[in-house]
Specification:
By secondary structure, this protein is an all-alpha fold. About 70% of the residues lie in helices and about 0% in strands. Helix 2 runs antiparallel to helix 3 and helix 3 crosses helix 4.
């Protein structure tokens, strides 16, 4: 991520923390959280977008969703994570 976007980095990490809290308090399950994030990612990357929406734009929109998916996976596995590690993993997977 461009270093000009530290506010977004903080926002993504805050959302990941809220997701962990929701799971830890039993409000949602890890599986439910994964399901909703995966459905959102699929919707963002669907082929039915207007012609003026580029693939790179779709991938940029999907980035925070993918980051939250990876953060949720790490939490479920009991692993610590940081933004840089998650961003690198997204790059490896896409």
């Amino acid at each position: 991520m461009n270093t000009a976007n530290p506010q977004l980095e903080g926002l993504y990490l805050a959302l990941a923390a809220v997701n962990r809290l929701l799971v830890d308090k039993g409000i949602v399950s890890n599986a439910e959280l994964q399901d909703v994030l995966q459905a959102t990612e699929r919707a963002v990357l669907a082929d039915d977008k207007p012609l003026n929406v580029s693939s790179s734009h779709q991938k940029a929109v999907a980035f925070p969703i993918r980051l939250l998916l990876l953060a949720n996976e790490a939490h479920e596995e009991g692993k610590a994570f940081c933004f840089d590690d998650l961003a690198r993993e997204i790059g490896r997977r896409t």
